[in-house]
Amino acid sequence: MATEITLPTQQIVFIRSLQEEYKKIDTWLNEAQDLSSFVENGQTLRFPEAGAAPAVYKNRTTDVDSVEPTETVYDVTLDYYDSQNYKIRNIWNHALPYDKIQYYTRLASQAIVEKEIADAAYTFAPDAAGAKTIILPTTGGARDGFKMATLDDIIRLARACDNAGFPDGGRNLVLPSDMWWDLVSNNDILKAQLSYQQNNGVINPTIVEYYGFRIHKSSATHVAYNVGTNQKAPQGATITGNVVPAGFVFVGTNVFRAGGAFEMFLTPKQNNPAGRATEFGFAHRFKADFVLSGQRYSALLYQNLAPNFS
User: Fold this and answer.
1) CB of 301 within 8 A of CB of 138?
2) pTM
3) Which of 55, 114, 210, 301 lies 20 to 30 Å from 184, alpha-carbon distance?
């Protein structure tokens, strides 16, 4: 007679499956440096913010002096992401329990990643303009009450990043779908990039590269900006009135992502006499944030309101 899946070794199989499904999902967040190896006990990230660069001398004729770098060490507790539990009753258990749990393991991994991406996007976008944080509006023609993103906007953004001393490499611009399609569809150069990919058997309509940016299309609007207060809007704010969609810039080496422990929680149906259902769910420890304090080297490109629209 078949037995319910309750053995610890079988739970380990599902946790490994969750990890594998999680790692398969390729997103713009993979451009951030991965500090998972610095996570202790699957829960706490410990990493240093390096001290200042050393002085460099030319044609020095005396002894070179020394400086002891001052590092700031951070202990960051990873956030806890719990997926909602699944409850599979006997009447719906047409397939083997193993197959059912395997299927929902894949769904849970996707849901956890999507929530982590949303939180990382909001974290990476600067709160307001500053010495090393840039806020710029789009300037293109009107569409649905907003000004469209253009290549000229990307040039302005690149110039502003240069002037603020952003690192040249690893610049990533993440745009919500409407802004991305406005940018690509109105520019022959970017459309040619996608055409080149197609002609060479590589079709990836979510990434283009231009003016030093790796430009990603995000399927959701994770960041919004309030043009009335000149501040990033609260996470999850409705796009209405002065609250408009926005994309954001991060430098891969200046932000991090860190994953910790995966957990599975399982109550087999024989331990659930009232519900007579197998109930299970998953959890993941994760954190995404800046390596440097003060949101340095980040930018936001918001979709400006078109004239006579509010």
Assistant:
1) yes
2) 0.84
3) 114
